[in-house]
Amino acid sequence: MGLPTGLETDNWPLVEAKWFTDIIGTQRKVRLVVIHTMEAPETDNTAENVAKFFQSLPANRKASAHLCIDNNSIVQCVRDNDVAFAAPGANRDGIHLELAGFASQSSADWSDDYSKAVLNNAANAAAQYCLKYGLPRKHLSNAELKDGDEGIIGHVQASEVYKKSDHTDPGGNFPWKDFIALVDKHYLERRKSLDLPPPL
Q: What H or E segment, with its residue span, contains residue 156?
């Protein structure tokens, strides 16, 4: 069975990152959607600015993500089938979403209008990837990640499980419960819009 059509994935505006691994001639196995924070200010063009940053990094600072997401836009930096340099250990089989904001944000910060819009855009994207790759809309525990389960994680979990980075994003106050609920909402709406049967 082929991948679903009618999704925005690989069709968002592209500002191609300088560093990524190009996968040619085979379909990459994706098992994770990885949530990051950009560690960049909340502005209306943060996604575009960080995408341009990924375009200009030197060889001693290789980094990238599939999507940069702010309150009003989603910019693609690495195509879905290619491997981003985002969270070592979770790169080969991960889709990486960079969200405008900081890992240090409080619960109140994640609840303001700007972050609510960011979370909604990110949940929309994550839902499409769950649909595209048949992933559960579930925030994995570290044990589940280590066991090879499929689902959604934060970069911090890749750091803790694979011990190849020290990043702590999206932070201890990231609203995982609300985010997964948003992913579920978009996932069900997307299935309906594509005339797909309800999930089992």
A: helix 155-162
The letter for the amino acid at 117 is: A
Q: Give CA–CA dist 198/200, Å, rounded.
A: 7
Closest C-alpha among 179, 180, 176, 183 to residue 157: 176
Q: Are strands 151-154 and 67-69 parallel, antiparallel or unpaired?
A: unpaired
In sequence order, the β-bridge partners of residue 32 are 94, 151
Which residues are bridge partners to 99 per DSSP? 37, 69
- Tens of pLDDT along 4-41? 667 899 899 999 999 999 999 999 999 999 999 999 99
| All structural domains of the chain | 27-193 (3.40.80.10)
Mean pLDDT over 90-100 rounds to 98
Strands 67-69 and 94-99: parallel
Cβ distance 130 to 34 under 8 Å? no
What distance, in Å, lies between the first and last C-alpha atoms of the chain? 17
Whether the CB-CB separation of 165 and 102 falls below 8 Å is answered with: no
**How remote is the C-alpha of 137 from its chain's centroid?**
13
Q: 119 phi and psi, to 5 degrees?
A: -60, -40
pTM assigned to the model: 0.96
Helix (H, G, I), strand (E, B) or coil at 152: strand
